[in-house]
Amino acid sequence: MSSTTPVLPGESIVHLIGRATTSLVELVGDIGLFALCMIPKLFRGVPSKRVFIPLCFQIGVRSVSVIMITGGFIGMVMAVQSYNQFRLLHMENRLGAMITLSLVTELGPVLAATMLSGRIGSAIAAELGTMKVTEQIEALRALGANPIQYLVVPRFLACLLMIPLLTAVADATGILTGWLFSTEILGINGFHYWHHVNKFITAWDFLSGLTKSIFFGAIIAIIACHRGFNSEGGAEGVGRAATEAFVYSFVTILVVDFFLGVFSNSLYYLIWPNPLVTG
Amino acid sequence: MNSNTTPILELQNVSRQFGSQHVLRDITLAIHPGETLVIIGESGCGKSVTMKLLMALLKPTSGNVLWSGSPVNTLKEREISQRRLKYGYLFQGAALFDSLNVFENIAFGLRQNTDLKDQPIHDIVIQRLQDVGLPANVCNKKPAELSGGMKKRVGLARAMALDPQVMFFDEPTTGLDPIMSDVINELILRTARQRNVTNVVVTHDMRTVKRVADRVIMFYPLARIGSDDPQIVFRGTKKELFDCENPSVSQFVRGEAGARIEELNAA
Ligand SMILES: Nc1ncnc2c1ncn2[C@@H]1O[C@H](COP(=O)(O)OP(=O)(O)OP(=O)(O)O)[C@@H](O)[C@H]1O
Ligand SMILES: [Mg+2]
User: Fold this and answer.
1) Residue A67 near residue A170 (C-beta atoms within 8 A)
2) ipTM
3) Across the interface, which of B89, B93, B162 has its CB nearest the CB of A134?
């Protein structure tokens, strides 16, 4: 990563690329190992209610408003941006199908996850980072608690549960505002709008979007906890951990989104080899 | 100290470095059950690191840490955390959990590791608060609402909640007023006598050394000694410490800057 690889004097570009690559591979490996460490702890009993419920509140309930704003504007922006193109083709009645499909399969999950990696990921990284630099994580170990079990597992589970739910909220808000904008402002007939939504959107589209968001939730939680646990050097280090949590999870979300898209397409054609017949 | 019993804690040729910075080099140290060892030395010489190595919160770069004769690096993670419950640790910065109030901080170890009901936990917490001279009405405060000295004492109460057999105190009286310092010194002495607790105390406070120490060791920062000199420049009883002729020890004990002033002026 560029932030950790300053150019040293007398170093060629090849050295720099080499070092950046090694540190990237190291980072990815380290985060992978961290996730592996956590997996057996997931099965050591459920987190206590005392810890879990406030976390879900913090992560879930507190994010509803920003998520609704995000989803709501995406729905309207989609309508504004595609209306002219569709009208040229005299297909404006199909606007609903376009908006809803893009929302539930792609824009909803990705933009919600982006929003949440900024909101939740940075907050988790900053909190755990502060605990790290003030010796609280060592204090946990000294008092017989496993920091991964006590801190990471509940945050991971809360993200896994809350981020798909928030994504569903974003989808719903976007569908609602997209519909309202199209019918009330752009003057599209409501019956035709929903008719095409019904015809083109399947449960598969919804589920593949929500499945993605489960992955995104896991990514946000693991990267944020990892950055927090590895923060060093006082307030400055905590700030850096928070920023890195956002940047790293955002990049990872985009990469994983691409591969999940490829994967879910191939799966789709495997199950329904000739999609035109079903459409 | 009778040296034929197994030491409860032992360091064998332990070194520790952070990145390229060498902090501890070839430290060998044995602590016997029931004794109170005081570690002194100037800031940054590795006292806190030594305590964390003894508690197995840090791993040595080389060498062995032994708990009652068994090398820690051969123990399973589970067994380490089980055995560690017998050890209490007061962190230099208290390290209270920000998200929990004072009561839950002190009760943390009990809730994590015992099946005690609310009432006995409540009784223990109140008792520990009393031991460190705090009123019961601080229970509902968050650590951010406490003064530095109060945090330290809550940290002490938390470390003692599980009735440990070994106590690590990282600067227990730093930030406390003289009266409260004496209360804490008395508390250290009392638990050592009543329950035969082994104490490891890091301190800069010579009154604490005078009150509690059975044995004293003094560390020197690696940067200030040659590559063959031992890092522990003094080992002995407190009487030997205060009578010590070695200028680097006696100046430290009396708090005289000596040659350091000239270094500063030269710089
Ligand atoms: N986690 C860490 N990462 C990097 N360096 C560290 C770490 N912990 C300690 N050090 C370094 O080790 C050295 C010794 O630190 P330590 O905290 O043991 O000092 P100390 O003797 O307790 O000092 P003080 O009396 O000021 O508390 C310091 O120079 C510090 O920079
Ligand atoms: Mg220290």
Assistant:
1) yes
2) 0.91
3) B93
